[in-house]
Amino acid sequence: MNWSLIARCSLRYSLVYAGLTVGAVFALTKSELALLTLFGLGLAVLLFALGGTGTVRMGTAMANADSMGLESTIVDPADLQATQLQSDVKVLFYGIGLLVCGMAALVLVG
């Protein structure tokens, strides 16, 4: 599992993009109802991203040898190349960011 890719994308989508969305909406509306709506939207996006595909992608999370508890010394060259995170994972991180940033903004404003 590429932890640096996950950390980088989670910071980008959860904190930066979702934080900018919450900040911009509150700056434009000055409404707590808008923040509550963003919190609800974040929950809906999170539930959609978790249950939307219906498939479990264990192959991307771990190799078969790792799932059995065995250490593998064989490295696939494709694993060493830079890749992008899939769209549904980006949506998941954005939904988590809307939840967290929306709740934090509600606590700070209210």
TrEMBL record:
Pfam name, any one: DUF8070
UniProt keyword terms in alphabetical order: Membrane, Transmembrane, Transmembrane helix
Source domain of life: Archaea
Domain DUF8070: 1-109
InterPro entries: DUF8070
Membrane-spanning parts: 12-28, 34-52, 91-109
UniProt protein name: DUF8070 domain-containing protein
Originating organism: Haladaptatus paucihalophilus DX253
